[in-house]
Design brief:
Shape: globular
Protein name: Nucleotide-diphospho-sugar transferase domain-containing protein
Radius of gyration: 19 Å
CATH topology: Spore Coat Polysaccharide Biosynthesis Protein SpsA, Chain A
Pfam families: Nucleotid_trans
Low-confidence stretches: 1-21, 316-327
Structural class: alpha/beta
Bound molecules: 2-acetamido-2-deoxy-beta-D-glucopyranose
InterPro entries: At1g28695/At4g15970-like, Nucl-diP-sugar_transferase
Order of helices and strands: EEHHEHHEHEHEEEEHHHEEEHHHH
CATH architecture: Alpha-Beta Complex
Keywords: Signal
């Protein structure tokens, strides 16, 4: 009935009183303690081997903290969760807070293609893991590794909110549950409501076995269970937390940019390189010019994403659902 899964044992029951008696991995406790900010907040990303290769996404991710405006300090609070030995070795070579999740039999080494069984499994492990972090009393900012940190996001986060999440497409109303969230970036405070919410979210995978964690989030966000627990949810504006789906247009405002609406590792790497070049050019402008010149991002992966989507739609639409939801 109870299976050991990495750091924590989850019964398939909500709010299991036994869970606390089982205990946490002391290694994880130590990594979180060393990386957290004064208010027990950590920044978390997850990494597998394909993204950790030299010159790939992980390098660009770390680079963005150095190129961003006053984002370098956040590297001290960044915990990199690795899924395999190779990614772990690479993390240790470049970064000080790395934690390898026990995977026993799982093999996340290769590029996990979107919506394959491996991919789904990996995404659910992530939700489970983040629930554990909340349970241990830590707040977190979860960030996908293909998100570039250009400015301090804490300046833009909403106050007094349990769960705030970035969007592929933002409709202008941060309270509107019809916004299209992207699970690749969120800021979650540890409290009774969020701990319960993550358990509910993780357990909901059984009700929707073929769906992605993000799709399930879209299913459960209006569930009466969630509204009854009074979880304070808000959606982050793409003006600050943008991506390739919807750009953060104004370089004077952008906090983060995500390589969403972009398929394929190589395409992502190319466009993220271009994006960092655009940013460097902007940063090099004299202060007086920064607000007057109106640069735009020269990324183009979105078009390949659209083309792939159209092609797939013609092909009987089998993968359509997969592509409508973005990575
Ligand atoms: C970087 O941040 C500092 C302090 O907030 C600010 O004075 C400066 O204008 C910022 N530069 C850019 C490029 O945003
Ligand atoms: C994991 O998968 C990779 C290819 O995706 C393979 O080369 C490797 O041998 C596998 N490792 C294990 C332990 O099965
Ligand atoms: C530049 O623009 C940003 C956002 O558009 C604004 O917050 C900032 O105050 C402006 N700075 C100056 C010096 O006008």
């Amino acid at each position: 009935m109870c299976k050991w899964r990495g750091a924590f044992c989850y019964l398939d029951l909500l709010m299991s009183p036994l869970a606390h008696m089982v205990g946490y991995d002391p290694k994880l406790a130590s990594v979180l303690r060393n990386a957290c900010m004064k208010d027990k907040t950590v920044i978390i990303t997850t990494l597998n081997d394909a993204w950790a290769e030299p010159g790939s996404i992980f390098d660009l991710f770390l680079e963005s903290f150095r190129l961003g405006n006053q984002t370098k300090k956040f590297l001290n609070h960044l915990v990199v969760i690795t899924w395999d030995q190779k990614a772990h070795a690479r993390c240790l070579a470049l970064h000080k807070h790395c934690y390898q999740v026990e995977t026993k039999g799982d093999n996340f080494t290769g590029e996990a293609f979107f919506m394959t069984a491996d991919y789904l499994h990996m995404m659910w492990r992530r939700i489970e893991f983040l629930g554990t972090v909340l349970d241990m009393g830590y707040n977190f900012v979860f960030t996908d590794t293909d998100i570039m940190w250009l400015r301090d996001p804490f300046k833009q986060f909403y106050k007094d909110t349990d769960f705030q999440i970035a969007c592929d497409f933002f409709n202008g109303n941060s309270y509107d549950l019809n916004n299209h969230p992207n699970g690749g970036f969120n800021y979650v405070k540890s409290n009774k409501r969020t701990i319960l919410f993550y358990k509910f979210w993780f357990n909901s995978r059984n009700a929707y076995p073929k769906l992605h964690d993000q799709d399930v989030l879209n299913k459960i966000k209006k569930d009466s269970f969630v509204s009854n627990m009074k979880l304070k949810v808000r959606f982050l504006s793409t003006s600050y937390f943008g991506g390739f789906c919807q750009h953060a247009e104004d370089f004077n405002k952008v906090s983060t940019m995500h390589a969403n609406c972009c398929v394929g590792l190589e395409n992502k790497v190319n466009d993220l390189k271009i994006l960092l070049e655009d940013w460097k050019k902007y940063v090099a402008l004299p202060e007086s010019k920064k607000n007057q010149s109106h640069p735009s991002w020269s990324v183009s992966c979105r078009t390949s994403f659209e083309r792939a989507k159209q092609k797939k739609q013609k092909n009987k639409g089998r993968l359509r659902r997969a592509l409508v939801v973005t990575v």
